[in-house]
Write a structure and sequence with these properties.
There is one protein chain. The chain has 138 residues and is mainly alpha-helical. It has helices at 3-38, 41-54, 56-80, 86-105, 107-127; strands at residues 128-129, 132-133. The chain has a two-stranded antiparallel sheet. The longest helix is centred in the first third of the chain and has 36 residues, at 3-38.
Length: 138
């Protein structure tokens, strides 16, 4: 083999490697820019909120806790009212936290029982019209 053929092959191999280096450098630069953008604090916060909003379990937990808190607060207001008695206020607060805890932990059971009661009420209301009994067809 002549020297010129070897030098041509060597140049071709060098060109192939330089092109590969340029392509991999561009890919590396693009990945770095993506990493840099995703690591910005505002983007981290946005991603966290997006993940939270897409989490079904977290949504249910927040809803159950909110319903529990609201129910506990209403029960406290109903029990204590406008009383200035410190013992009654203390008992109202304990009642509020107890009901909140109970509802938050047993939300699934409460939902199913409430759904059955609602279906029962709706079906009874649907079978009666103006005091007369109407048979339902399914």
């Amino acid at each position: 083999m002549p020297k010129t053929d070897l030098s041509m092959e060597l140049r071709d191999a060098i060109l192939v490697l330089e092109n590969r280096k340029a392509e991999e450098g561009k890919i590396l630069k693009d990945q770095f820019l993506l990493l840099y953008e995703s690591a910005k604090p505002i983007n981290l916060i946005k991603k966290t909120f997006k993940d939270i909003s897409e989490s079904r379990d977290l949504k249910e937990t927040v809803i159950n806790s909110s319903v529990g808190l609201a129910t506990g607060y209403v029960s406290k207001k109903l029990f204590v009212g406008a009383s200035h008695n410190p013992l009654k206020k203390l008992f109202g607060t304990v009642l509020m936290f107890g009901i909140t805890n109970l509802i938050s932990k047993n939300a699934g059971t409460i939902k199913s029982v409430g759904g059955q009661l609602l279906k029962s009420i709706i079906s009874k209301a649907g079978t009666k019209t103006n005091g007369t009994h109407v048979t339902e067809t399914k």
